[in-house]
């Protein structure tokens, strides 16, 4: 049994890493420096998740809607992503962590796509944890892609429409081989999901914090874990049913 199971900690954590630009303004830094600061926060968070036995960590690096940001910022974020991949590869090997990416890669540069594929292949056999970086990703895009794939299967005669249900759909969305998201954290003070993992986080516990991402610490992550542990997850059942199930187990 892992430490996370012993302490009733989440097996899959998702993080919306928000607040980089506001951090830069707060510190009177130059444009883009908030993103650079935010990039450095990820390492201790990944290490801590691995240490306590979290199976999967998925972070929102660049959304489908972020393409609408100023071009200089888009270019910087793509550059930082490339730097992050190069920096993470030796760390993934050291900690036995698989590195994956989800999102629409069609708008990414050929160079970046090749680097992402190389990183995924290089770390595919690592099994202590999975770190997924969502790039050019949107939850609605994810579900539309799943629906398209299912439709293609049906048109090809490999699938009957009466076979389409929640369990089948689940097999076609991103991260279908990982546990569902247990805990979704959003930094930066906003209270919305921003089109992130809408299917995968359907029953996730939500933790919102005013802390800006570059100021997010392992200590606050542990606090979020404590909040999660104190919540009763009913999945549509009553509290009495949950308590009875605990007694029986």
TrEMBL record:
Binding site for substrate: 19-23, 31, 35, 63-65, 67, 69, 186, 192-194
Name of the top EC class for this enzyme: transferase
UniProt catalytic activity: 8 isopentenyl diphosphate + (2E,6E)-farnesyl diphosphate = di-trans,octa-cis-undecaprenyl diphosphate + 8 diphosphate
Record keywords, A-Z: Cell shape, Cell wall biogenesis/degradation, Magnesium, Metal-binding, Peptidoglycan synthesis, Transferase
Top-level division of the source organism's lineage: Bacteria
Cofactor binding, note field: Binds 2 magnesium ions per subunit.
Swiss-Prot/TrEMBL cofactor(s): Mg(2+)
GO molecular function: ditrans,polycis-undecaprenyl-diphosphate synthase [(2E,6E)-farnesyl-diphosphate specific] activity; magnesium ion binding
This protein's record includes keyword Glycoprotein: no
Sequence positions that bind Mg(2+): 18, 205
GO biological process: cell wall organization; peptidoglycan biosynthetic process; polyprenol biosynthetic process; regulation of cell shape
Subunit structure, as described in the record: Homodimer.
Family the UniProt entry places it in: Belongs to the UPP synthase family.
Name by which UniProt lists this protein: Ditrans,polycis-undecaprenyl-diphosphate synthase ((2E,6E)-farnesyl-diphosphate specific)
């Amino acid at each position: 049994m892992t430490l996370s199971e012993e302490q009733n900690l989440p097996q899959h954590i998702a993080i919306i890493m928000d607040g980089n630009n506001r951090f830069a303004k707060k510190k009177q830094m130059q444009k883009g420096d908030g993103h650079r600061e935010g990039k450095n926060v990820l390492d201790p968070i990944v290490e801590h998740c691995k240490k306590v036995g979290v199976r999967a960590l998925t972070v929102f690096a660049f959304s489908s809607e972020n393409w609408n940001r100023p071009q200089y910022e888009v270019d910087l974020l793509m550059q930082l992503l490339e730097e992050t991949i190069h920096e993470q590869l030796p760390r993934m090997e050291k900690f036995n962590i698989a590195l994956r990416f989800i999102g629409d890669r069609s708008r990414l540069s050929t160079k970046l796509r090749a680097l992402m594929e190389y990183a995924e292949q290089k770390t595919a056999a690592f099994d202590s944890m999975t770190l997924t970086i969502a790039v050019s990703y949107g939850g609605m895009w994810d579900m539309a892609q799943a629906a398209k794939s299912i439709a293609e299967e049906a048109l090809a005669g490999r699938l009957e429409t009466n076979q389409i249900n929640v369990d089948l759909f689940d097999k076609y969305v991103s991260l279908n081989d990982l546990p569902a998201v247990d805990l979704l954290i959003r930094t930066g003070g906003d209270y919305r999901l921003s089109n992130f993992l809408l299917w995968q986080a359907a029953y996730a516990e939500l933790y919102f914090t005013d802390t800006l991402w570059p100021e997010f610490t392992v200590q606050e992550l542990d606090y979020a874990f404590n909040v999660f542990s104190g919540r009763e997850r009913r999945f549509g059942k009553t509290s009495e049913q949950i308590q009875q199930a605990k007694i029986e187990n």
